[in-house]
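Protein entry
_____________
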Amino acid sequence: MAQKKWPETWQEVTPGCMIFEGGNSREYHTGSWRAQRPVWDNAKCIKCGICYIFCPEACVKEDAQGYFAADLDYCKGCGICAHECWPGAITMVEEG
């Protein structure tokens, strides 16, 4: 059986964004759509997890020390994590 080639850019996504196979979201790295990315300042982070809770893409993960960071393969740069972070530990920086 031939290995299926997954779209690498948004132009290659199926018409209407139709999904033909369940459980395939991990195959679509959508982080390349981002114009800005979140950067955490762990000195300001109080490890509350608000960024984790509010991330609409569920790409914010907790590390072994209890700090958070976004999986940039899936982060679209919406900035919700930075907006909700009341200690100001997250800033959005231009991609590039």
